[in-house]
User: Fold these one by one.
Assistant:
Number 1:
Amino acid sequence: MELTIECAKRDPKSKPNALRREGLLPAVLYGYDKTESMSLTLSNHEAEALLRRATENNTLINVQVPDASWKGKALIREVQRHPWKNKIYHLSFFAVSASDMVEVQAVINYVGEPEGVRLEGGILNTEINEISIRCEAGEIPESLDIDVSELKVGDSLTLANLKLPKGVEAIGDPDLALATVLMPRKAEPAKEETVDPAVVAVLDAMGGDEEEATTEE
């Protein structure tokens, strides 16, 4: 996904709240000159539109700063929002080149019907839907399609046995279980109907009376 955003260099003396009242959003670009950072502003409306399409720590964005004669690729590293208004308060970008190795978050899409579900009546239990990966900035996948069709009942898909695209490496505990096919649920035995002991006693008493009456006749 190729996205572009234009920013302006921000005067360090400017007040963030004053900028927000003008419809501008304070931002910062880290790493644009290796160790340097640059204070920026961008349209709040454009920032909202950007975040509807971009994902934090995942989407590579073309950032342009015309009044600083800079343009390049960057990741959104942090999105700060107002605690109760849910409005964007601040954005942080991190500049990268297409060949830089970066650590990002990737969403997992589980595809296929597990054999254990299809043939044994099991249940697929997905425990993790997003993992950390390392890859080149220019090769960040929008999501990962993971085939689970070969899983049988009792099988688990772990981080170690993920089949990932070339150049993509999973980060974390290799034994971390992402999805498991559980045993099918057994039907609970039907509960026996219980009769109130008092009712049983009454019925027994009635039965005794009938037998006595028959004997006397």
Note: The CA atoms of residues 117 and 142 lie 28 Å apart.
Number 2:
Amino acid sequence: MGAAMPLSSDTRLRRFTTAEHWIHRLIAIDIGLLIVTAAFLYIPDLSSRVGNRYFFKMSHVILGFALPIPVILAFCFLAFRLDVRRLNRFTRVDWEWMRSKDRRTGRLAVGKFNAGQKLNAAFQFGAIIVMFVTGAFLWFNGLVSIDLRTGFTFVHDWLALLMTVVVIGHVYKAYREPYARQGLRTGFVPRDWAMREHRGWAEAMTDTASDSAKEG
């Protein structure tokens, strides 16, 4: 898979590849199921209603160990690696975006990802690593002392709660952004939306399309 390129229509821009769509979906499903199974483990009323705590415990463990797999597979695709570079680069425009009240008018030359998306990605990636490590030590608890297990439990539980809050916020924001969801679902977004929300990226993609047309 190559980098995302403008395709098929003057009114649309290619934002994500099919591989990126499925990677995002797999990670979202895994995290969603982890939150659900954790709820059944930590909320007594839910556990008592189901009466099969062992099933949810094993499901939670399997889902936790499986979570890094789609992340690792994602790095096999060029488009994903290019997007990681974009997410990992905080620019002057990003700082201005965070301070501006008119950040969504197209005035700022925002790149493919805005500052909020970059911060969310950084938190989620870091949280996945911490949750995986602490969860692994809690499962293989004979490798660490009781004091360390207590510390790992504290970090794992409270970070899980924080992740749940962030995920709910992320879903809420996505619900309010139909074109952003469309970009992940179909790979394409309207050019006018891109010019308003991510002008720097949209202009770069338009220039790339123009150069390709001239060469053709």
Note: The first strand starts at residue 12 and ends at 14.
Number 3:
Amino acid sequence: MPVKARKTISSTTLLVLIATAFPLQATEISVHLKDDKNKALSNIAVWVTPNNITSNTLTTPVTINQIGKAFDPYLNIMQVGQPLVFANNDDISHHIFSASRDKNFSFRLKKGESNSSVEFTKGVSIAMGCNVHDWMSGHLLVVETPYFAITDSSGKVTLNVKELGEAKVEIWHPQITDASETLKRSINITEISTTLEFQLKKPMDKIPEQKSGDDFDFLDDY
């Protein structure tokens, strides 16, 4: 009785089958930031953009609040195409506007109102103000990647990136005075976690205080 030949699976095919059955986990990219005096830098935007990015656009809305006649948070970050909401939590009116040629918007918000009409189709940094309260200032950074965060009190963020290969890591804050080329690095993402450290060479500018010395407010019928 003839013996049937056995079908063998090549090592390459086996690896493909394993990868299909057990998808690769995301790689942790940790970033630590310090200022020019070697102290932890909190509230700094960090983002990773893989060259071969395939991840979907985030659908969770980003909210910029107006609380106590101030933008909260002062700096926010979001992805291109991600929903954005401006929410007036004060009991007075605001008139929000952008101070950027790349993206103009201006709208009034009465107490308790919100606005979700602003959309972004490209990466940009936006400075914002209020026509009613001229001391109010805030910043929004729009990036073309879902991998972003704001550094915590220890100056750290950890991002879980799904795509392997070449990528760019960048940091930003409107008060950073270092040259832009020192705030970005190219890396090669593998399955091994990576830790990067950035340290500023120059002192940051002072963040403007969102506070007025007078008690004047526009009434709600503004």
Note: The domain at 25-53+146-204 is CATH 2.60.40.10 (Immunoglobulin-like).
Number 4:
Amino acid sequence: MKIAVIGAGRMGAALGRLWAKAGHAVVLCDVRPIEELEALAREIGHGTRAAHAQEAVADSDVILLAVPWASIRDALARCGSLAGKVVIDVINPHKSDFSDLEIGFTTSASEEIAKLAPGAKVCKALNTLPSPVFNLPECKVSGMKVSGFYCGDDEQAKQIVAQLVSDAGFDPVDCGPLSSARYLEAAGMLLIRIVVALKASPELALTLVRQDKPCC
């Protein structure tokens, strides 16, 4: 799979690294100088490269949006048309001081992105995982494989996202339509409060515990 990572910060770089290691063709895009991205791409290896956003998007099947919520309009403008692309949104639309969400419950970052990018197959995924979790051995917390929640309105796109969630090392959990992003973003905000306000370790995750077979 060809994946363009828009926003090569902690989250974007960590996911790009995991997907490149799993054999996907990853290209990094950011507002930083291209020389810095090229250095990061060399460090990640596995054929990872750097490019400007519009070039990367045109040549990719999947687009990862991993920019701050305040930067989303600029990021989408740099990408050009996303029509027909599978777009994975990992953004939690929190305020700059991490005190609360900018939007929520009647809409979500993912739903607003879908409005701003007509024709894109937008899915929410992996936003409930703090970035340090991506750097743990096998992405496991206390030895446990953790849930990678995702949602979206396009079933084919969701199948692709589920596979990428699995390829990154997480247990894919389908949360239904894109409107479920409202609740995933609230869950993401809960973890932010636990980490920022209560100063807990960021190496934590929400996990859905399931039985393989019915209990009775």
Note: The chain has a mean pLDDT of 95.
